[in-house]
Amino acid sequence: MNEYNNKTILVTGGTGTIGSELVRQLIELKPKQIRVFSRDQNKQYYLAEKLGYYSGLRFLIGDIRDRERLDLAMEGVDIVFHAAALKHVPSCEYNSLEAVKTNVIGSQNIINLARKHHVKKVIGISTDKAVNPNNIMGTTKLMMERLFINANQYFAHPGTQFACVRFGNVAWASASVLPVWTKQIENGNEITITNPDMTRFFISIGQAINLVLKASQLTKGGEIFILKMPAIRMGDLAKMFVKKYSPDKKVIIRIIGKRGGEKKHEELIDSSDLDRDIFQNKEMLIITPPQPVYVNAIEDRVYPGFTRIKNSASLTLSSAKSINRGAIKKLI
User: Fold this and answer.
1) Does domain 2-168+202-228+268-312 correspond to CATH entry 3.40.50.2300?
2) Which pLDDT value is given to residue 156?
3) Can you tell me whether residue 328 is helix, strand or coil?
4) Exposed, middle or buried, 312 (CB in 10 Å: 0-12/13-18/19+)?
5) What is the pTM assigned to this prediction?
6) How do residues 139-177 score in pLDDT, each as one tens digit?
7) What is the DSSP pairing of strand 231-233 with strand 199-203?
8) Are 87 and 137 in contact (CB under 8 A)?
9) Between the chain's N and C termini, which has fewer beta carbons within 10 Å?
């Protein structure tokens, strides 16, 4: 963890669920300064209160769409963690052009300004919805991934390493299903699900932050880092949740139908990922960059503690095959 010591770090979306926990953990690693870049002054105030007004924190009001403001925020930065995004599927479906402005154009601003200011590493936070996307949110996050990965190729003198982490559903993130169900139980005797046969990957906030920090340590540029996450049918998750949080109250699980843009089953990797070298250890996968466009040879990489998967076609693509109830109970 010494790579963060005495460094200046920028966290975009730094007051969100992932961003704020990342900031909290980074403080323990003794960086020189952490810049929290976000749009909501109230969230910044509450985060400053929560973190005891740590002397190394700087709170910057701004939007990654605003290149001029982001340019100022990036001055003298060593590492960028890019967590700012529009992430809710229905909202992105309805406000598709806004999703493009933030998730694609905003990410392009991150890339260009990181290169301008000679940032050493940039880690972009993506989602399993970027795999074979059928909605605006997933499509824009896939574009963000491709921009980050290819950014390692097209600069004549690369001095900045760009990489991505790919999350599943982050348990207890703001406006995610578990806190929504909690509110529904508090206010009545039912919770709602779209389709009980839907499957979703789940990751805890702590696991998510651990993946981000390890990606920053391990990256050589151009990888996608994926945690080996448990997945579950949403109907089973609902039953487990009710049993845990309302054992003495009869709670109805009401099916409301699939929302616009939702997939029945999410995936962690797609067929194009299988064309690349993939490494693994017990907890994560590393998908290496694709063949460079104008170079014939692919760089031979080694990641300490990881082994190359010889038959990547054997990897499980669908969440429906990887249910782990014990891990899900811990997340709940």
Assistant:
1) no
2) 55
3) helix
4) middle
5) 0.93
6) 999 999 999 999 988 765 568 999 999 999 999 998 899
7) antiparallel
8) yes
9) N
Nearby residues of 225 by Cβ (< 8 Å), 6 or more positions away = 163, 164, 165, 166, 211, 214, 215, 218, 219, 284, 285, 286, 287
The residues spanned by each domain of the chain are 2-168+202-228+268-312
The two structure tokens encoding residue 152 = 């390692």
* List 7, 43, 121, 129, catalytic entry: 129
d(CA 141, CA 28): 30
Q: Cβ-count burial of 44 within 10 angstroms (0-12 exposed, 13-18 middle, 19+ buried)? A: buried
Q: How confident is the model at residue 319 (pLDDT cuts 50, 70, 90)?
A: very low
Query: In Å, how far are 40, 174, 245, 271 from 183, measured between CA atoms?
Result: 23, 12, 11, 39
Identity of residue 173? A
Helices (H), the chain: 17-27, 41-50, 67-73, 89-94, 96-99, 106-116, 136-154, 177-187, 205-218, 234-245, 325-331
